[in-house]
Specification:
With 275 residues, the protein is of the alpha/beta class. The chain has a single domain, classed as NADP-dependent oxidoreductase domain (TIM Barrel, Alpha-Beta Barrel). Helices cover 39% and strands 16% of the residues. The chain has an eight-stranded parallel sheet with strand order 3-4-5-6-7-8-9-10. A two-stranded antiparallel ribbon has the order 1-2. Helix 2 runs parallel beside helix 3, helix 3 crosses helix 4 and helix 5 packs parallel to helix 6.
């Protein structure tokens, strides 16, 4: 198993997150990831590394159509004209004619969602994005986006790991046929030292990170974006398809969720769903 296939979206189950991967380090991380079998690379205008991502893909020698590239438009650029400029800049930085997936990075209550979704749909119609979606959208925002979008949405990318219960958003994505892509899948490293995770990892002969990622991609319709710039860990993070967690392990890991488990705490965040 190397990919999920939800709502006609062929999305690799494990992709490379690139937040904070800059310049030469970012180029090397992307090139290494592709060499180790990754076929999904995630970036964003806000990361200021789209040029490095594009260069890493070209240096890998892989054909453009053989790698799935996601980028995102920042929440301050959601008026239609600013949105279009952001997409054009992203493609210029990447040196690509299109991205495979274009996302609204965060919702913005000060910009009409209809306007932003119209600009997102226009990017799709113009061939600049093969698929479109949203990121960091809780259920209420997601329901509105699905209802208002002129083009079907394919993805909601949100923080997700065992310390954060995302059942409500997961159910909403399943209801509408959207893939759920987990960013911050290792809880920014906070779960690596969890003794229960470590115990399960030891039983399977795997690392704690591999167990955490397996827990995510073993759930229907869920993909994950671990971030690393270290070659060994990049390789380990995609090596999660030769074992499976049993039902008891899946439940015990899910039971780690806590009300204070969210990592992404930004001033502009929407009102999150509670468990």
């Amino acid at each position: 198993m190397t990919a999920t296939d939800i709502a006609a979206l062929h999305l690799p189950a494990i992709g490379l997150g690139t937040w904070q991967s800059q310049h030469d380090e970012g180029v090397r991380a992307v090139r290494t990831a592709i060499e180790k079998g990754y076929r999904h690379i995630d970036t964003a205008a806000r990361y200021q590394n789209e040029a490095a991502v594009g260069e890493g893909i070209r240096e890998s020698g892989i054909a453009r159509d053989d790698v799935f590239v996601t980028t995102k438009v920042w929440w301050t650029e959601l008026h239609a004209s600013a949105f279009r400029r952001s997409v054009e800049r992203s493609l210029s930085e990447l040196k690509f004619d299109y991205v495979d997936l274009l996302l609204i990075h965060w919702p913005n209550p000060d910009v009409p969602l209809e306007e932003t979704l119209g600009a997102l749909a226009d990017a799709h119609r113009q061939g600049l994005a093969r698929k479109i979606g949203v990121s960091n959208f809780p259920v209420a925002w997601l329901e509105r986006a699905v209802a208002l979008s002129p083009v079907p949405l394919s993805v909601n990318q949100c923080e997700y790991h065992p310390y954060l219960n995302q059942r409500k958003v997961l159910d909403a994505c399943a209801k509408h046929g959207l893939s759920f892509v987990a960013h911050t899948p290792l809880g920014s490293g906070r779960l690596i030292g969890d003794p229960m995770i470590a115990g399960i990892a030891a039983r399977h002969g795997k690392t704690s990170a591999q167990v955490l990622l397996r827990w995510l991609v073993q759930q229907p319709g869920v993909a994950a974006l671990p971030k690393s710039t270290h070659a060994r860990r990049i390789g380990e993070n995609i090596d999660v398809f030769d074992f499976a967690l049993d039902d008891g392990e899946m439940r015990r890991i899910a039971a780690l969720a806590t009300p204070g488990g969210r990592i992404s705490k930004v001033a502009w965040a929407p009102e999150w769903d509670t468990a």
